[in-house]
Model the fold of this input.
Amino acid sequence: MIVCITEKPSVAKDIATILGASVKRDGYYEGNGYKVTWTFGHLCTLKEPADYTDLWKRWSLGALPMIPPKFGIKLLGQDSIVRQFNVIKSLIGEADEVINCGDAGQEGELIQRWVMQKAECNKPVKRLWISSLTDESIREGFNSLRPQNDFNNLYYAGLSRAIGDWILGMNATRLYSLKYSSAGNVLSIGRVQTPTLALIVQRHHEVVNFVPKDFWELKTLYRDVTFNVVSGRYETEADATVALSQIDGFPMTITDVSEKKGKEAPPRLFDLTTLQVECNKRWGWTAEDTLRLIQSLYEKKVTTYPRVDTTYLSDDIYPKVPGILGQMTPYANLTAPILANKLPKSKKVFDNSKVTDHHAIIPTGQLPSSLVGDERKLYHLIALRFIAAFYPDCVFSATTVLGDVNGVKFKATGKVIVEPGWRNVYTDSTDKPTDEENENKILPQFIIGETGPHKPSLLKKTTQPPKYYTEGTLLRAMEAAGKTVDDDELREAMKENGIGRPSTRAAIIETLFKRRYIYRERKNIMASQAGIDLIATINEELLKSAKLTGLWENKLRRIERGEYSPSAFIDELKTLIRDIVMNVLNDNSLRRINVEPENKPEKKPQKKRASSPRITKLEQIICPKCGKGHILKGKTAYGCSEFKAGCDLRLPFTEYSSELTPGKLSALIKKKFNG
Done:
């Protein structure tokens, strides 16, 4: 018998259907030689400090740093988790082989490995590795199962990340809370959250300390076209006035007209961060909103695995693309021109060297007929980006016109679309990529040597402070370790040193909101006074530097590739926390950080509900399955009075004690069947 362990019940159901495990049991599906069970995400976690020694139960500066000789895991304490874990452990004990069907990523690997370790699995284990949940993808995955050991480095990277976060988070949080906070006030410190907060605080200081400066721009209007002075802006009004007087009353002479054809490639496919940024720009969605929606699209089988950090497809996807495009029937008018010819294979789309675990987010080809609202909007965004990737480049003609007025040089530029190419996909203005330039002006025809009158103007302007981060721009800054990078290729190269993972950045931002270190002001993310004070208090650059934290992330990625030792990474963090503890303990300042209490909305007075009649007899409990009968007590289980009519409700005494009062049994039934 083969046991398959998935990450959630819905995925288990999909896999069970493909494998022929059609019989639903308590905590698993069974059939055709398979038993398909599931976790609920994380069933296990690293042990708490108090689990190692009584000395760490109480928060004390003298107990720091806390570094266990060996890290251990434990089962989370919820009843539902314990019950499901016991099911998994029992199934593993009966199995001849186990298949790890967790999400195909670092976190998914960690979740499944910990569960199997806790269950003391000593059976052969294989790995299902798929990028979508379509029936075809699942079948292909089971036809090409891989040994679990092929993914050991992925697990070591996830484990190193978890242990590193524990070492820094547990120790630094206790250290700073005990040293700098008021009684009962916890100062949360994290390997990724603190450098992210530092980015926001830094931007706050840049805005607050910004000193505006006036400057002047000289322009002139010739034949209804605005020409800008080539020498740039003037720092003083006196210089600007002199320049204006130099051209006033003199004619404009056209000295050069040049035309250059250029090409604009289609926008890159989406990775998770790019998608979150785009949705934040378009609709103001938070990173968490977008992650939740794209995860739902993945589980509904209409898009591929979302927690990815690449904008490329692997070469093996190329032969599948025509089939995917052909199945996207709602977009047939857009796909028809591509499918009429051989599909182009651009290096900007297909590149094995840029793909590790998973490729970019694309449609699966499955019809999105059940999607409504925001899910439909998101799918449409991904679908158009995918289709556009196979359209020709947009060809444009760029014109530059140079002019001279009494020795002062001027320039005007314009751009004309010659062949729209991929822009034909975005005929609706609401669909166009948000970073698209404003419509470029079309210039009239100019002739070298022509001359005529013009209307000069002097515009006074003021330098503007940097913009506060939005959730979109913050994600970009995290991706590039604090640097603002617009170039796609450069940004791709810098991902190795980004802080956090695409899959975790949204949660990190939400954590900072929950800790009240940051808050929203419209779309802007602002640092609270507590957040500002915390960053000011932390002297250790490694705790708050995006650049240095990015280097840690680089090491984790190298662990994943087998290029760096997990033990070296952990030892580095152990040394770091020892140094941090020593430095903080030697700080004799009397600094204190206060976190404002959360402003909870006033509770509205609730209408009194009519009390339900007290359950004192089994006959009063309506069957939750058929809704017609009532509960009966048998020899080994509770059942339904309508069993002769076909109701198969069965609540065994192993789960529902025969000693339960009718009231308690009713409560348990409601919890199980009504959530």
